[in-house]
């Protein structure tokens, strides 16, 4: 797709994403997105090094997703997520790609916490509010 007002600027959407959107429209007439109620920051080596320098108790991880905020009353809150958690696995797979369209289906999440604590949580995504 090209942006008319910007010469030479364009973007693309992966065909897998388009196929899922089409399936959602066929089934329910709208796109359904999962929501667990976390604010997330994908960590890289530079961010991890800075966090370890600032917070000596930061988990010893090489990659993951930092959870700075858990929405009160959300599926993540009910599952036991805490601000500062570092998600290292969703259902045994790397990072968040697993959520896909799994509304209502239990997902096991491995979280690293300070003090070298590893916790496995189970969260059930809800349908995202389209007005949010």
Automatic annotation (TrEMBL):
SMART domains noted in UniProt: PDZ
> Domain PDZ, which positions?
62-127
Q: Which family does it belong to?
A: Belongs to the peptidase S1C family.
What protein name is recorded for this chain? PDZ domain-containing protein
Natural source organism: Brassica napus (Rape)
